[in-house]
Structures are given as structure tokens and as C-alpha cells.
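Predict fold of PBP domain-containing protein; 361 aa.
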Amino acid sequence: MNKRKFIAAGAAVGLAATLFAVAPAAHAEPVSNYAIVGSDTLQDVLNALANGTTISGGSVRSTAGDSPVGSFDATGSAQIQTKVNGPRFVRPNGSGSGVSALSRSIDGAAYQGTAITGQVDVARSSSGAGSLANPTGPLAYIPFGRDALSYAHSGGANAAFDNISQAALKSLFECTATTIGGVTAIPVIPQPGSGTRSDFMSKIGVTDATLGDCVVVGQEHDTSKLFDGTAFPANGVTAMSAAQWVAQNTGAGIDRRGAGVKIGSPIAGVPAVTGTGTSMAPNAAFYADTTWGRDTYIVVENARITAGNAAFDAKLANLVSNQGPKLGNHGSLSSQAGAVKKKFGFLAPSTTVPVRANLRS
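Predicted 3D structure, encoded as C-alpha cells:
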């Protein structure tokens, strides 16, 4: 049985996080009054903002009024506890899982078999609302920062791996053409529930039905190993957030790069990033591309950030506002959250207008 089908089957019955839990992150995940879960793409920068950071040259910490915030990684222990005396529940791994957990926190239905009402306040999402968009929906997708989606590869010095076209990526992940530069390439798709997975598949024109049997499953943005813990393969190709790649190279984020892995570009002559090592930065031209550029979001219950609503929570509204150190800020001063986001590879989003959406199943 191939890895793609095996892991998808586990995810379908809610067992993937238990079966393939990986080592916990080095930083602590304390219970707090306000909890953030979801996307791996945004976890490093949200962790920095929630815990406090001086990476921008100033001191920046995002709090909910006077209350601390807990940001929980996409991977680590199989379960998490977000609130004092709250239940332990399956760790949300990815954008979709994070928004689902937030939705269950709102509507009271079980999340992966556990009631988690009031246990999640914010979901990190590298994907927009998509088909859930609804101008009167209960969720608000608040633009967080501009990212771009490319791919990473372990093709070594084979220059063909550095520029794989959109059409060639489609053929590779459908397993209709499996060679790049004369060698067999191994397509690696992020785990189910990943926003990067769904975005990447959409951009290259592949669906779950057309994803080929030669595809193996990885953990998004980890090019050292696959989702089941085995080593990332030689000549592997996987979706990669340009912002995550910048953060992992500059030292801003957790380094999950495999030896010799590089970032490629599906646009000839337009690299995803510029510079190397600690000098690496986003390439604004690639981020601006209408196909490969993407806005990322923080997702909250709209009623809780709407003044005058009976459910209004002034502290949560403060946390996601555009004030200097808060999550919705896109400023450039060293004391502002926007400057921290740039250090983690994010540019200002294409719009600052929130999008309303329905709950996610």
C-alpha cells in the first residue's frame, strides 16, 4: 500500500496525529487565556509574536489586551491542552485542521471526538476562505501577510530541478511523467489538512482524485523527513512556502531543511527568494505573481471582534487589530508586528479587508 493512500486513510478516521506524532518543538506551549492553532506556514512568526521577540530591532509582543497568548505548533505531541482545566484534544496540523478546530470551538460539536467549546480563539491559515466565503458567515479571515508558494527539491546540482514549470509539476504529481533532468523524481505532497497542500494542488491543477500513486506524503515545510518520520528522498520535490524558506535560512524560524535541499521556481527567470543564508529575503516580483503569490490569514469568530455584538471580546479584538504590536499590523517600524513578519519572510498582504466565511466541517 503506497504512503499516500495509507496516510490519507489514517487521516480520514482522525488517527494521523496519533499514529505519526513527531518530536515536540523546543519552545514551551503553555495554556493561556487565548489560544492560536493551525497552519505550519505561520507558526514560527506567530510563536515569535505571542512569546515576544526583538528580531526586528525593537521589542514586539502581541497580547490580547493584558492577557498572554499561547500559539501551538502544528506538530508535536499528539494532543494539546489550550486552556486551564480544559480538555486535551488532537493537535490541529495545518490550516484546514486549525479552522475546523476553531469552528468546533464555536459551534460545540466534537473535534476529533472531543468537545472543545471555547478552547480555540484564533486559527492560522495559509489559505483564504475559498468556497466557505459568505458575507454574513460567522468567521472572519483577517489578512496577515503576503507569502508565495513554490517548491523545494533535493535534486542536488541537477539544474533542471531549479526551474520546474507549472505543467511539469502537474505531470509529476499526477505521475504521468516522473523524470526531471533525466532522473526519476519523487513527488512529496504535504499532509491532509494542510493549506499549503490544497493551495499547491490547486495551482498546479491536481485534485485528490488525480494525485498519482507514486506520490508520498510529507510534513509541510519539513524537507528533512516525510510525514511518517522516514528520510526525505533524494530527487524529492515538495510544495514550499517562500516565507517559510526565508525564515528557515535566516534563522528566524525553526530550521527543518534537509541536507542539500534548495528552493526552486516555477517561473523562469523569477526566483522565489533573493540572497542566501541570513541575507535571504522575499522576492517581491515572485510574491506579486497572480498564480504563485498568496495572502495568509488569521481566522477568528466575527461576533467576538464586532463592537456592539453580545459576544464581543475586547481583548480578542485588540489582539487581531492593526495596532503596532498586534497581529493585524503591517507597519515597518521596528516596534511593529509588520517588521517582525518581514523578518520571517512575509510582505504586506494584497488587501487588509477581512473576508467573512462559514464554519468549516
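The chain is about 25% helix and 20% strand.
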